[in-house]
UniProtKB/TrEMBL annotation:
GO terms for molecular function: protein dimerization activity. It comes from the Eukaryota. The lineage of its organism: Eukaryota, Viridiplantae, Chlorophyta, Pyramimonadophyceae, Pyramimonadales. This is HAT C-terminal dimerisation domain-containing protein. InterPro entries: HATC_C_dom, RNaseH-like_sf. It holds the Pfam family Dimer_Tnp_hAT. It comes from Cymbomonas tetramitiformis. Residues 20-91 form the HAT C-terminal dimerisation domain.
Length: 99
């Protein structure tokens, strides 16, 4: 079993990652209209670990299907026939329906 002191320890970073991060911080700010993924692709040779992390994070498509689905469910639950439901009842119903 681990001591409570071990739980508070922050893992140390490899020196290469620290050097790469400091190198990244030394780059000048890119213009606001810069294509972010293109920037990381161009600098991936000098910043390989951070480039990989950036591509994994930035490649996640932004979509609102989950939010739209939730609003749709609420509209069904809060119809004219059910307009007397309390706010709490609607919240619990949506939570139960979405999970």
């Amino acid at each position: 079993m681990a001591d409570s002191d071990d739980e508070d320890e922050v893992p140390s970073l490899e020196p290469g990652i620290v050097v790469e991060f400091n190198s990244y911080l030394a780059y000048p700010d890119a213009p606001a209209d810069t294509e972010v993924l293109s920037w990381w692709k161009a600098h991936g040779g000098k910043l390989p670990v951070m480039s990989k992390m950036a591509r994994q994070f930035l490649a996640v498509p932004a979509f609102t299907a989950g939010v739209e689905r939730a609003f749709s469910r609420v509209s069904f639950m809060h119809s004219d026939l059910r307009k007397n439901l309390s706010k709490g009842t609607i919240q619990h119903s949506v939570m139960a329906a979405m999970n």
